[in-house]
Amino acid sequence: MKTYLVGGAVRDKLLGRPVTEQDWVVVGATPEQLQVQGFTPVGKDFPVFLHPQTKEEYALARTERKTGHGYAGFSFYCGTEVTLEEDLIRRDLTINAMAEDEHGNIIDPYKGQADLQQKILRHVSPAFAEDPVRILRIARFAARYHHYGFRVAGETIALMQTMVSNDEVDHLVAERIWKETERALAEPNPEIFIQVLRDCHALEKIFPEINALFGVPQTALHHPEVDTGIHTLMSLQQAVKLTINTCIRFATLVHDLGKGTTPKEEWPRHIAHEERSLPLVKQLCERIAAPRDYKELALMVAQWHTHCHRAMELKPSTVLKVLQSNDAFRRPERFHQFLVCCEADARGRTGFEDRDYPQADFFRRALSAAQQIDLAPLRAQGLTGQAFGDAIARLRLDKVTQLKQEFYAQE
To answer: How many CB atoms lie within 10 A of CB 140?
Structure first.
């Protein structure tokens, strides 16, 4: 019985990255032997055990055989004769198919170290094509390691394209798509996740609403980058600079979906794209099982981001409408998230990346001013119900009007 450190921990140690968790493979052992030593079984599909002290995962070396479609379409064999090399070859990338023994020696049968040095994400074997989740994983790894200079190998992109053309991605379940997408949004370059999916033709299958944005022109005066898909990825880059919040990053990614349905005869203008975005955001979120808070913020940004960009031009009553329609008084934190999305959108344009975005500050000041009203006189008047609500609205409007007047005076 031998134990090896495997996978991401070995990869990240060699890259000089911090190792956050360690996974282990046990060769030549039976489940009964591990349980006698105090390991706790946790695996349902194959034998995985928790170490009695560290609680780290120890899996018996195993082989896999394709039995059906999708992530769950596999059978496993975990006999004591299964070798470490047989266990490693079932993994996705060569850089994830290395192991380290108890003396610190690296076992690297599939040249993972060479690919680390050359900064290449390459599949280990043709068996990669048996699991469609790996398309999402490779795109996510590309997003994680892009700033190190990593790229996906040409032959791996070609294999992923074959998987798409064979309809393997049609067997991806919503929960797996969302899990990988959310993790990708947390990476340093989530726009690369989208780009790799597009390169292998999976974007049109998994995120057709986003794929439809590429090749759609916008007015060059306001969008020097012209292409709506490029603008979307640039906005996502800006969101990364502004926040680590994946909910904000997701809302930024899907804020312009309606532009993908603009009739060609109306290009490069996109009148009413905000309203056209709403059903598209809803169907995308439902299809990939996005959580409710992600969906709600995404819908807010899709519908109201243009109002935010025009903050200085809006009448006080319209400013108040934006605040009320987005429940800013009861949920100010979510409204502040909305403003970050709008700023990322405004900066996600060629030549505008470092521009100030005073509109967000104006709306923050408007919300703060409208929150600072004295309710005591209204209660003293005995107002209740609709009358009480109308009186609050009038006071808030007065505050916003005063703020606008101060702004114009400064101008």
So the answer is: 24
Range of the domain at 104: 1-110
CA-to-CA distance for 162 and 172, rounded, in angstroms? 15
Q: Which residue has the tokens 């200079």?
A: 149
pLDDT tens track, the chain, 411 positions: 899 999 999 999 999 999 988 999 999 999 999 999 999 998 776 789 999 999 999 999 988 776 566 555 557 788 899 999 999 999 999 999 999 999 999 999 999 999 999 999 999 999 999 999 999 999 999 999 999 999 999 999 999 999 999 999 999 999 999 999 999 999 999 999 999 999 999 999 999 999 999 999 999 999 999 999 999 999 999 999 999 999 999 999 999 999 999 999 999 999 999 999 999 999 999 999 999 999 999 999 999 999 999 999 999 999 999 999 999 999 999 999 999 999 999 999 999 999 999 999 999 999 999 999 888 787 788 777 888 888 999 999 999 999 988 877 776
Q: Can you say how many angstroms the Cα of residue 397 is from the centroid of all Cα atoms in its chain?
A: 38
Q: Is residue 380 part of a domain?
A: no
CA 60 to mean position of chain CA atoms: 32
Asked whether residue 97 is assigned to any structural domain, the reply reads yes
380 contacts: CB under 8 Å, gap ≥ 6: none
Q: Is residue 89 part of a domain?
A: yes
Q: How far apart are CA 47 and CA 24, in angstroms?
A: 12
Q: What's the token pair of residue 230?
A: 């490029």
Strands 2-6 vs 99-100: parallel, antiparallel or unpaired: antiparallel
User: Rg of the chain over CA atoms, in angstroms?
Assistant: 26
Contact 273, 289 (CB under 8 A): no
3-class secondary structure, 52: coil
> Would 93 be classed as within a structural domain?
yes
In the chain the first and final C-alpha atoms are separated, in Å, by 77
With 0.90 as the threshold, say if the pTM is over it. Answer: yes
* Backbone φ and ψ of 340, nearest 5°: -65, -40
